[in-house]
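Let us practice reading a record.
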Amino acid sequence: MLECKHITKAFGEFKALDDVSVTVPAGKIFGLLGPNGAGKTTLIRIINRITIPSAGEVILDGKHVTDEDVRAIGYLPEERGLFKKMKVGEQSIYLARLKGMSTAAATAELKKWFIRFGIQSWWDKKVEELSKGMAQKVQFITTVLHRPRLLILDEPFSGFDPVNAQMIRDEILRLRDEGTTIILSTHNMESVEELCDNIALINKSHLIVTGDTDAIRREYGSNQVEVLYRSAEPLPAGTAYTIFSDEEQKANRRAVLDITPGCGSREVLTELVAAADIMSYRELIPRMNDIFIKLVTAK
């Protein structure tokens, strides 16, 4: 749905982005990752035409993105901001009108969302009466109200307690299932593993890695498996594996094995079953947090 081709953005001699290309598939959740100052927000602002790239192009649905296309984008920036003296309902309708909705249509949709989030009583409250988390619920609703084809969320879980963070996760997945394409910029690697179909990692203005989330996790794996088993003795050495670690637990033992190149799970399990009472066997795939740290800190 969205292609950013060879994007460069310079501010004087400083390059916030340097030849960055990413492709966001339609109907998927795309994780935009990177440490603070990597260039993520700059790329988001370029997609939204808040700023213009020094070089490169942004393609939306097969054509260069225009100011009119921005109406089809929902953008929740990390820097939250509502007009504190306005009432919640009044401000929500105002923001919806900016996206091209009529007052009647905006009011009808807002009523549905307010009921879904259990915030009907907030309609006539002033924004300054709301807590940070309450205000963020309102901003999320106003971001998705016009049913954007492309939804960009910058740290959407920041400031939420676990219950409300899960509510937002559920809504993101529902929107994805209904066909919305979503770009999720976050430092929460647990959310990346839970939500994102594809990712791009930017560091120091450069694209470091991009692709299918599961494929990237497997690519950076170490070809290890974890085995839980019952035995009075540690596992014997094998030909299909070498023992990385083997330790006693409360009622069993846990071993981490390095798989011999060219061997598969069938060969490993054949040797293990002959040696011990195997309770569980699973491939150890690195977490996105570990991959993020490894790639960002690599020299």
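A brief commentary: The domain at 2-218 is CATH 3.40.50.300 (Rossmann fold).
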